[in-house]
Amino acid sequence: MIRGFEPRLYQQTILDTAVKKNTLVVLPTGLGKTNIAVLLAANRLTNYPGSKVLILAPTRPLCDQHVASLRKNLDVNEDEVQLFTGMLRPAKRAELWKKSRIIVSTPQGLENDIISDKISVRDVSLLVFDEAHRAAGDYSFVFIAKAYMKKAEHPRILGLTASPGSDLEKIREVCRNLFIEEIEMRSQDDPDVQPYVKDIDVEWVKVDLPKDFEQVRNYLIGCYESKMEKVKSLGYLFGNVQSYSKTALLEMQRALYAKASSGEKDINMLKSISLLAEALKVQHALELLETQDVKPLLEYFNKLEEESRNTQVKAVFNLVRDLNFRSAVMKTRNLVASGAEHPKISSLRNIISSELSRKQDVKIIIFNQFRDTSTRIKELLDSIGAKSKIFFGQAKKKNTGLSQKEQKKIIEEFRNNEFNCLIATSVAEEGLDIPAVDLVIFYEPVPSAIRTVQRRGRTGRQEKGRVIVLVTRKTRDEGNLWASMNKEKRMHRLIKDIRRDFSSVRPEELKEERQEKLLSEAEEKKEDFSNLKIIADYREKSSSIVKTLSEKGLKIELSNLDVGDYVLSERVCVEYKTPKDFVDSILDGRLLSQLTNLKRYERPIIVIEGEEDIYSQRNIHPNAIRGALSTVLVSYGIPILQTKNSRETADLFLMIMRKESDLTRKDFTLHSAKPLTDKDLQEYVIGAFPGVGGTIAKPILKKFKSIKNFVNAGEKELREVDLIGEKKAKRIKELVEKEYSED
């Protein structure tokens, strides 16, 4: 089935393992991870005729790359390889799924299809996870892998990544979540890889912070230390305040927030939370000054001053009044006005000018963490005649976000030599088919092994590559540089240790362990819930509640609910909230309208999930919250139930559904009440229409008086009934007018 390429030796060796075991492949960018997936896909489709191959990748551009590779290198019809994205309607995806042999998809939409049982992974003989290091926490890869291993007849998993990270437990978690049995790792130094790679020269260009910049830095350090000393005096910090990293401050702030949310708070704790918020903002300013330039720093200062005039957040208001902070702002304004620039800017100017004079069609990627600095770099390159474009992510910040279509266009233009320099934020580090370049420049080191490996892998593919890292001496740049180097070494060491762990376990032991993991939940529940169904609003499609119920075997229907978040039966509708959301709904007025709508159901419920103290969520008087709770319980007669977490909420929903539905029935539907009288029979017939049910049947009959009038009504008339929107009205008319078929 393979065509168009000759597998390399290391690809063949890795394939030999992946054919036999669920394998995590760790291979530097540019060494053909995608081709390994193609080779294994051909093997599985040949050995399991009639089966399917599913490839998951986190971004649309990366999915496009897989589709192009599969169509080029596999002897299959083009329409047998299909791309699934969020742009396709679920019904269309379900239709294409049946016809296709190979499906490439982003994970979120496919996860929803599996949850709502629109597609079955039973016939999938290979599941590929690209950027497999994402298979942690609540990411969609985790749920899909578990569902696949439970349901597939001939399961095989292949994970692909350039770097799984440098944290032992994180790597182990990825392996557990993807049911990995073996790791195949290669570096550019391995003997079977060396014939196919080119050397990469890495150069560190070190600069010194100018004296004027040092003055601004001293003011900011003075401001920072004053905030930290105050926190220390309040009893929430110990030792040298300079020893606390940004990560440590964030963790401390989260811990204090958690205590405050659980009701354990006092005035000193609240002051400390505010002071830590100020300190973190100063840390960000220091990072901009040390590693970026004064122009982005001034923009950040201006943003804080604007916020202080339009917000009641004390941290911002107090910070801009701090004398040291104000001195730093004034000094920065003077530096920008005088045309001062960070020495990295002048170094970059020299590097690019030298490269252009040496080779006119040179290709360069400049990686940078901040959009404001990217704009500054673009101005610099324009001034020296270098053709460049900025490559951002999709998030809209200061009107700089790019759609996937715009991203694809820029990459194509770069590939076709329409410009020399691509200025890229972190979005270009992963999941994009960016062509190989002559030079990669790190405007700043990043303290991540994953990101460093991915950045560096953009060069040294067809010919010798070069990497230049700009480093400001005696700043966090030096710490980040050494951190990334040590983490990369640690990553390789940890992977070797984990491989030894795998090799020490016999295959039958791994198989037993995997089966035990898959059967553990079934052993716990010991019941079949496949005849129970819950209707969840589309906004809840990625919630842990939905995933937990799906894993228990319940049927999940995703719908645009006009009322509530979950419908558990014809009578029971649930409005789901966290403590923060409940308080927010009091303040913005949503709660009363939600309560009114809930009363359309016979047994409405409000569920508040989370252990946070409801009285600590916002600056609102406790009596206002007590008043809202009283209104819900007394005025509307709606019970309020509190759960600790999503699993407890799911168990509660399951208990309610069991009481509401007879487990001996094959399916649960909203149209379930047995008719007794003519009135019941009329409601029963109307309730059978899609999206209607018993709740809406009554107002329909009140308006149209008879079943005949309802059936003959037009879409416009149908939409006059509460809870019937455009989509529901259109679907009802389609069903009324559709000819019956036994097929």
Tell me about this structure.
This protein has 29 helices and 19 strands. With 743 residues, the chain is of the alpha/beta class. The chain has a 7-stranded parallel β-sheet with strand order 3-4-2-5-6-1-7, with helices on both faces. The chain has a 6-stranded parallel β-sheet with strand order 8-13-12-9-11-10, with helices on both faces. Strand 3, helix 4 and strand 4 form a beta-alpha-beta unit. Helix 8 packs antiparallel against helix 10 and helix 8 packs antiparallel against helix 13.
Count of distinct strands: 19
Helix content: 40-55%
Contiguous uncertain segments of 5+ residues: 663-675
Structural class call reads alpha/beta
Cα-to-Cα separation, first versus last residue: 36 Å
Sheet with the most strands: spatial strand order: 3-4-2-5-6-1-7
Which of globular, elongated, flat, extended, rod-shaped describes the shape? globular
- What is the count of helical runs? 29
Task: Bin the strand percentage.
Answer: 5-15%
Mean pLDDT: 85
The value of Rg in angstroms is 30 Å
The largest β sheet comes out as: 7 strands, parallel
